[in-house]
Amino acid sequence: MPDLPYLRAGSGPVLVLVHGYLGGAAQWQSEIDAFSGEYDVIAPNLPGFGAAAGLPGCSTIAAMAEAVLALLDSLKVPEFILMGHSMGGMIAQEMAAARPAEVQKLILYGTGPLGLMPDRFEPITVSRERLLADGVAKTIARIGATWFKSGTKARGYPLLTEVGAQASPQAALAALGAMASWDGRQALPRLTMPTLVVWGDSDRSYRWPQVESLWTNLPNVRLSVVPGAAHAVHLEKPALFHSLIRDFLQEGCGDNA
Predict the structure, then answer these.
(1) Could you tell me the CA-to-CA distances from 158 to 161, 163, 204 in Å, in that order?
(2) pTM higher than 0.70, yes or no?
(3) Is the CB of residue 212 less than 8 Å from the CB of residue 225?
């Protein structure tokens, strides 16, 4: 597979941002702007999504992780800080399990260790049926509304639906199957790098039991719960989100910086 298209800005330690289902690198523009003054920020588009819509989508979470790692290899990135959102958080867990020595810090945001997502706003089988019936654009418009506390009125909703509608139908279907078959729970004790779990308290995709599983099974973890936010905290409450991320990234960097 050719290298994934990506957005990149800044210099310093490498910060890799992995988007979620029906996402794309363009959803991270606010984070790229916020952190590129201190970090070399790289945001890939996953195969079949966003600017990579022309590439065939992957049928497993592991294959998505391999695609991102292949991009980092081609860019000659030896080590990096890794953040994954939603399905991207599953991919980030897979990447960290595959190459733990390369992941300096891990941020698992709006995600969990079980792809089947118990207690999700709707079963993945229903999402698949409705995707086949409605198409990608209508699906992201419908599902995306559940990712915000204020639904379609949220300020980040237009960007989310615009980026999400770019996904190929093949990739959208394949990713649902990839999530449904993925279980990362056994790998959690091996992810010993400093880890931050971020969760909006109104998230309807990943409920508290998923988040609690990360919090209680990761060896070196802290938890930040964002009140009054749902699944897209970075678009709902960007200033607070950036503050939480920056605090975690700067910890352990020394008091003389």
Answers:
(1) 5, 9, 19
(2) yes
(3) no
Rounded distance between C-alpha atoms, residue 139 and residue 172, angstroms: 10
Note the pLDDT tens digit of each residue in 141-187: 999 999 999 999 999 999 999 999 999 999 999 999 999 999 999 99
Angle 122-213-177 from CA coordinates, rounded to 5°? 40
The matching CATH number, chosen from 3.40.50.620, 3.40.47.10, 3.40.50.1820, 3.40.50.150, for 6-250 is: 3.40.50.1820
Q: Which two tokens stand for residue 116?
A: 């089947």
Rounded distance, CA 65 to CA 235, Å?
24
Q: Read off the pLDDT of residues 36-91 as tens digits, 9 standing for 90 and up.
A: 999 999 999 999 999 999 999 999 999 999 999 999 999 999 999 999 999 999 99
Q: Pull the structure tokens for residue 32.
A: 């790229």
Angle, CA of 233, 32 and 166, to the nearest 5°:
75
Sheet with 195-200: strands ordered across: 6-9, 40-44, 14-18, 80-85, 103-109, 195-200, 221-226
